[in-house]
Each structure stands twice: as C-alpha cells, then as structure tokens.
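Can you please make up a protein's amino acid sequence together with its fold in token form to help me picture the idea?
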Amino acid sequence: MHRDSLKMNRQVIAGDKLFKCEVCDKLFGQSRNLKTHMKIHTEDKPFKCEVCDKLFRQSSALKMHMRIHTEEKPFRCEVCCKMFRHSGALKMHMRIHTGDKPFNCEICHKMFRQSGALKNHMYIHTGDKPFKCEICGKTFRQSTTLKKHLLIHTGDTPFKCALCNKMFARSSHLKEHMSVHTGDKPFKCDVCDEVFRQSSSLKMHTRVHTGDKPFKCEVCDKMFRQGTNLKTHMMIHTGDKPFKCEVCDKTFRQSGTLMMHMRVHTGEKPFKCEDCGKMFNHRSNLKTHMMIHTRDKQFRRQACDDIFKPSSFWNQHLMRHSGDKPFKCGLCDQMFTKSSVLKKHMTIHTQEKPFKCEIDDKTFGKSCTFEKHMQ
C-alpha cells in the first residue's frame, strides 16, 4: 500500500495526471481538482452571495465576487498606484507599463497584451461574428459590442450626470462626459502636445502623425484612419444614402450633412459673430465674415461706409465702383476684377480640379460643385 502510494506521488511529480473525468475525459493531478471540475457537469453551485444571490462553484470565486459589493481592491500597482480587485487584473495592467505584448497573431503578427484581445482580433481574419442579437439578428465580433448594441433596443441609460441630468448607457461614457463640465483634457499627444477629453480621440489623432490607416475597403483597397470614414466610404460603392430629410425627401450619406441641410428648412443659424451679432448657417461662412472685423488693418470708404481688412480688399472694392478689370486670361482674353477669379477660370483651360473628396478621391474644378457632391 505504501509502495503504491509512493509510486502515485512520483507519477504526479513527474507531471502525470491520474484522475480522469468520466464525462469529458479531462485529466487531473489531484482528486480535489477533479471534484471541483465535476461541478461544471452537475451545474452544482453551492456558494451563494448573500447580497445579490449570485451562485458560484468555488468559495474562492465567491470571495473575489464579494469585492464588487465591498469595493475592496487589495492589489496595487507600484508604478501608478492604481488599485485592482484581482491579482490577474493587476498582472494584465502591468503590461501597460512594461510594454509586454505576449500574444501574437500568426497571420499579421500584431501583438496583444491579453489573450482575449487576440481572440477578438482573429475574427477580423476569419470574418466570424459569433455574437448575435436575438432581437434584430445583427451579429458582432465581440460580446462587448453586442452588449452596447442591445441598449438600442432596451433604451437603458442607468448612469446620470449630476450636473445636467444627461443619461448614459455606460459609466465610462458618463466619466468622459464629465470633462465637458470640468474642461479637463487629460489625454495629451506626445508629438504635438494637443490635448483631448477622450483616450479614443487621442488614439485617432496619433494616426495623423504615424500615417496609420488600419481600415481597408475590400472593394477598392483604399485605406482609412477611422472606421466611421470607411463606413461612409462604402456607401459610394453601395449607393446607400440612409439619412433622409423629412421635409423634402432629399437623402444624404452622412448624418452631419443632413443636419446642415435641415438649416435650409428651419432657418437655423447657430454660428454667431461676436463683433456684430450676425448669424450664419455654417462655420465656414462665419470664418469668412470675421475677416471684415480683423483689427490689424482697416480701410473705410466714405462713399459707401464699407470696412476692409487688407489693402487688397480696398482695391477690389474700388474696382466694383470703377468697373476696372485688370486681370486678363491669356488664352481667351476674358477680363476679371480679382486674381482669384482668374485662377478659378484657368481651370477650364487646364482641366485642373483642385477640390478633392477625401472619401472617394473624386476631384472637382469648382468649390460649389465639390460642396454639392459632399451632400
């Protein structure tokens, strides 16, 4: 008996697993591990939380769960002093400081800090979307994305801002929103020192410096910095214009373009000149208008009481009174009062199209045609 026991101990030390699960054939080195494992098959969860009645298979799992209610965070990061409920969470957090990314994608060699992040990443290559919404049938690569999507159906917004009563679906969104009231912009670009309220905004911004365009169109291979830009671009291939004006039925690719269009019907002019109080439909129109108020150089003509910024504006104004057109096209002899108008006119002869759409790379000779295309 003693000899058999000694033999068994030697086998365990050597790495042999002697205890076998009769249900799934999994092997264990110790009987107590097999006993704990069997609860998976029996669905036995004898450990109950007295606060929320949640059940657990192991007492250790209940112990860790209780920290949610007690808000106990016994594990501390020695670098930044951040606290964690679990040692595993601290271990993963430390990789931020060490830069360690032990999980490697075998296809594109991208590195990840967590195995779960690698698993989610692999769905990009496989095209697999295992998480399905039971309400509308839409599928997602990540369970967290599905969870966010479900809020559309439930309308649940449990997190409330104490200052403006705005409601949010997630606590992280409320936290980011609070920076609107505090003016806090804690995320700083190390290249140009620009600051941002959200870490996601900083992440997108850094792509300007790195040139990184991780979002690829599968139809034409064009690359984009942001997923939203790719989504908008895809509408060029599909012809989809999902945003419809309820007044005139005109459709648009982007919600922002529809929003600007609606000002035609509502007469809304949200952009106000702080100098004279004049209102404008678009920020670009206000920006152009503000040139009139620039204080560094002003010219006043007594005849019509107009105000101008640089002397070139003054000269152009005089030409309207005199009828003088000093700028001549060398190809067709047409005359113009402004050099800028002559420059635009020359694109007719040169076929130059200086206005380029960042979404589909289409070019235009006139800004007005370009603006119409963007709608």
In short: Confidence is low (pLDDT under 50) at residues 1-15, 295-310. The two ends are 86 Å apart (CA to CA).
